[in-house]
Specification:
This protein is mostly helical. It has one domain (about 1-95): Orthogonal Bundle (Rna Polymerase Sigma Factor, Chain: A). It contains three helices and no strands. It starts with a helix and ends in a 17-residue tail after the last helix. Pfam families: Sigma70_r2.
């Protein structure tokens, strides 16, 4: 744990800066860096500290950033496809409707006294 804390203290600013350039969002970059820190806290006690712990944190954070960017791209593409389908469906429904016919107003009867 002390090793993780020491590496985090030395590397976190560099990792967040690199991630910010990649994702163009400081808040997201910080979240991704912290996800990598959490992964280190889970893995290093079990598997041992890697030979280059700063590089491990950076690579893990970058992989998470790339995964996030891909997921966001897929979401945008899926939303665009849904919008296209909805638009097509609406156009089809409109064209399937019978043309509305205008009818003359019903004749009114007046009482003459």
């Amino acid at each position: 744990m002390e090793t993780v804390a020491a590496v985090w203290k030395a590397e976190s600013a560099r990792i967040v800066a690199a991630l910010t350039r990649l994702v163009r969002d400081v808040g997201l970059a910080e979240d991704l860096a912290q996800d990598a820190l959490l992964a280190a806290l889970e893995e290093w006690p079990v598997k041992g500290v890697p030979a280059n712990p700063g590089g491990w944190l950076m690579l893990t954070a970058k992989h998470r950033a790339i995964d996030r960017l891909r997921r966001d791209d897929r979401l945008r593409a899926n939303l665009a496809e849904l919008a296209r389908r909805r638009s097509r469906s609406r156009r089809r429904r409109r064209s399937d409707r019978p043309a509305s016919t205008t009818t003359a107003p019903a004749s009114t009867t007046t009482c003459s006294a």
